[in-house]
Amino acid sequence: MNVSSLSYSLMKTALPSYILFPFLVLLLSSCQTGAENRISENPALYKKLSTTDRALVAAGDVRTGMSKDAVYLAWGRPDMVRESTTTGNISESWAYFVTRPVPTSSLSYANVYRPFYGRYGIHPRFGYCRGIGWHYNSVDYVRYTSKTITFSGNYVVAWEQTR
Question: What distance in Å separates the CA atoms of residue 97 and residue 57, rounded to the nearest whole number?
Fold first, then answer.
């Protein structure tokens, strides 16, 4: 066996490990939650928190009295920020949104594509319209608020979460 065939056989057996290693790293790195990623990106903010808040942040939970930094580590950047005043007190609310698929269907689109079918999809001679254009299923995506949190100053005074 010469050197070139030996190196080829080694490369042939070692090639799968070179291919699998990046996928393994990607798989293991994607196992972190959003809170774990934010904690690893901001260790100084995490170290400033109390032990109670550290445990809540690691679990992705919040509590009344928690700081804005702790809420950011637990829930992430808000999708919307509102400021309001009530009797001179300035408060700030953060909102987080989720998009969910909603199945929809339609029975009213036959008149657009089949003009000789009447108001209810009935042709005067052929009866009901059956086939393409009469009934279709679709999916719409609806965005709704999943979490809101209200701060007075730098601390949480109220929060709400859809479960």
Answer: 19
